[in-house]
């Protein structure tokens, strides 16, 4: 069973003037192990950290994008400016639509627990 593709986890990373795809939906177990070994972050910490601009998660994400593209560079050599336009959504329209759908689905669910009527 394939998991839903979340466009909000699908990025384009610009590094040294070249764009590299980074789809966190496609994270593999081997990549999770590498992340843990190189950063001590588990999968959830890495993804959350990347989305929240945690420096360690960010640099691992950029290194992962480079590695997936066949660019061999040590993680310790990867660096980025703290502020800049080095990452963007791969498909902003799809991400916006996905978020809208998630909001609509959440609005359809009644959060109040069902109770039995008392007489």
Keywords:
three-stranded antiparallel beta sheet; 3 strands; alpha+beta; 119 residues; 43% helix; single chain
Describe the secondary structure blueprint for this structure.
Elements: E1 10-15, E2 18-23, H1 29-39, H2 43-51, H3 55-68, E3 87-89, H4 92-108
Antiparallel strand pairs: 1-2, 1-3
Helix pairs in contact: 1-3, 2-3
Could you characterize the architecture of this molecule?
This protein is of the alpha+beta class. It has helices at residues 29-39, 43-51, 55-68, 92-108; strands at 10-15, 18-23, 87-89.
C-alpha-based Rg, rounded: 18 Å
Q: Outline the biggest β-sheet.
A: 3 strands, antiparallel
The number of helical elements comes to 4
The CA-CA distance between the termini, in Å, is: 46 Å
Q: Which shape, going by the Cα principal axes?
A: globular
Which residues form runs of ≥5 with pLDDT under 50? none
Helix content: 40-55%
Instruction: State the total count of DSSP E strands.
Output: 3
- Helix and strand sequence: EEHHHEH
Round the mean pLDDT to the nearest integer and report it.
Answer: 88
Major β-sheet strand ordering:
2-1-3
Sheet-strand content, in percent, reads 5-15%
Structural class: alpha+beta
């Amino acid at each position: 069973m394939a998991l839903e593709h979340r466009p909000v986890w699908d990025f384009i990373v610009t590094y040294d003037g070249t764009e590299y795809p980074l789809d966190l939906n496609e994270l593999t177990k081997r990549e999770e192990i590498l992340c843990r070994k190189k950063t001590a972050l588990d999968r959830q910490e890495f993804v959350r950290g990347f989305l929240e601009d945690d420096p360690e998660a960010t640099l691992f994400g950029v290194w992962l994008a480079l590695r997936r593209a066949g660019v061999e560079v040590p993680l310790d050599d990867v660096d980025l400016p703290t502020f800049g336009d080095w990452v963007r959504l791969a498909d902003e329209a799809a991400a916006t639509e996905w978020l809208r759908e998630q909001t609509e689905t959440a609005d359809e669910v009644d959060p109040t627990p069902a109770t039995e009527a008392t007489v």
